[in-house]
């Protein structure tokens, strides 16, 4: 049996207001070729098919066209898809009865039986190769509150659900002797998040990361989604994130990923080369004169859907009202797509830190106040009473601004 694992397509995403449909079309065409050339038996899509819960008609058309075409190109292929946190679970699962006719199974919601117990059988999906039982897949979608057993915390609840599913399969006459494949859309401990990227941190909403011990050593493979970097989890060869096919932010621009292939002779990664690169100019923040010089070296031409996305980082002493005008003028006639301009304040002396304009917007006021307190008075930070009073004052100020 040969399996292809992919996740985090984020169909319908716009990147700084640029439509990424051509890039997604290129990826899905590449994936079809991979499935056919590899003679895959099973395709796993571990969540975040769409970028938001209300995808555009164009994004949905791209998704369903791919499913139809892949079923025609690879008639023996079985596809299993689970919902991610960006997906609408109900919307993704709505056409499931029609898709089953194409040997495509979608699991978006966690069903419960009349007694209120989780319907474990619904999440256990049989995998057949050439008409014969080959494995069973624990098709677990992104779990929201109420989707998992009450075990005291999110991570323990998720672990309890996989344990229950494992027990259900081992006790089943239909599945007990079959290899077990698991799917999930979550953050596992021991995994690496994108550097300086708040995207992945904010998705889970502060919930605890899930221990890789949740995935039984007996599982043949665990196909995870949510984190955009292709990686093994805690060094376990058979517990992996396939990564997103396209970089979702500039912190992901150097990732090399596409799809993970699980074959009898081992696990490997096939790399998809996105048609549009992400480029930071310069590689480190520099004065405007150096920036303008580097922009002048960019290729001439008209920007197209394959032109690089660029972010520009300029070292400044203070406010620069004409900064954007200078940069946009320098980019006139250049075959690139400008996404953002980062104004980075120069270091003023020992102990200071360069910080960009976007980072300023993300600063936590309490953390800033604590940092100032430590710098001025030493110690570990403001006393608890002072922090409480500061937080109350901040809350009142925010309410006044919103009026």
Q: Please state the average pLDDT score.
A: 89
| Uncertain stretches of 5 or more adjacent residues | 198-206
At the fold tier of CATH, the topology name of the largest domain is Purple Acid Phosphatase, chain A, domain 2
The amount of helix comes to 25-40%
Fourth CATH level, the homologous superfamily of the largest domain = Metallo-dependent phosphatases
Using the alpha-carbon principal axes, give the shape: globular
Q: What structural class do the secondary elements suggest?
A: alpha/beta
Radius of gyration: 24 Å
- Indicate how many domains the architecture comprises: 3
| CATH-defined architecture of the largest domain | 4-Layer Sandwich
Total of DSSP H or I helical runs spanning 4+ residues: 12
CATH level 1 class label of the largest domain = Alpha Beta
* Beta-strand segment tally: 17
Helices and strands, in order, run as EEEHEHEHHEHEEHEHEEEEEEHEHEHHH
Distance between the termini: 61 Å
Strand order of the largest sheet: 6-5-4-1-13-14
Strand content: 15-25%
**What's the story with the biggest beta sheet?**
6 strands, mixed
């Amino acid at each position: 049996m040969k399996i292809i694992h992919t996740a985090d397509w984020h169909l319908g995403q716009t990147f700084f207001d640029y439509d990424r449909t051509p890039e997604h079309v290129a990826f899905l065409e590449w994936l079809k070729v991979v499935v056919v050339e590899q003679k895959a038996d099973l395709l796993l899509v571990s969540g975040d098919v769409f970028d938001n819960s209300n995808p555009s008609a164009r994004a949905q058309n791209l998704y369903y066209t791919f499913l139809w075409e892949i079923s025609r190109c690879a008639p023996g292929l079985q596809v299993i898809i689970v919902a991610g946190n960006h997906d609408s679970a109900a919307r993704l699962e709505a056409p499931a009865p029609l898709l089953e006719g194409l040997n495509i199974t979608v699991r978006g919601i966690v069903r419960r039986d009349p007694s209120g117990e989780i319907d474990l059988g619904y999440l256990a999906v049989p995998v057949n190769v050439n008409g014969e039982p080959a494995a069973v897949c624990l098709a677990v979608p992104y779990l929201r509150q109420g989707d998992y057993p009450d075990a005291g915390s999110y991570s323990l609840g998720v672990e309890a659900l996989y344990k229950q599913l494992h027990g259900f399969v081992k006790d089943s006459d239909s599945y007990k002797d079959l290899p077990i494949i698991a799917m999930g859309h979550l953050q596992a401990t021991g995994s690496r998040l994108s550097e300086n990227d708040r995207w992945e941190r904010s998705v889970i909403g502060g919930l605890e990361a899930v221990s890789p011990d949740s995935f039984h050593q007996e599982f043949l493979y665990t196909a995870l989604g949510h984190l955009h970097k292709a990686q093994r989890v805690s060094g376990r060869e058979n517990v992996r994130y396939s990564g997103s096919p396209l970089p979702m932010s500039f912190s992901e621009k150097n990732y090399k990923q596409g799809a993970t292939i699980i074959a009898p002779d081992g696990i490997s990664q096939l790399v998809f080369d996105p048609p549009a690169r992400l480029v930071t100019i310069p590689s480190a923040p520099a004065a405007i004169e150096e920036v303008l010089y580097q922009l002048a070296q960019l290729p001439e031409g008209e920007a197209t859907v394959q032109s690089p996305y660029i972010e520009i980082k300029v070292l400044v002493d203070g406010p620069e009202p004409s900064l954007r005008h200078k940069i946009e003028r320098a980019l006139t006639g250049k075959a690139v797509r400008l996404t953002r301009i980062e104004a980075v304040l120069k270091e003023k002396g020992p102990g200071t830190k360069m910080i960009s304009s976007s980072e300023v917007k993300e600063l936590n006021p309490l953390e800033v106040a604590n940092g100032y307190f430590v710098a001025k008075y030493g110690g570990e930070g403001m006393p608890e009473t002072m922090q409480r009073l500061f937080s109350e004052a901040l809350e009142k100020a925010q309410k006044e601004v919103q009026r």
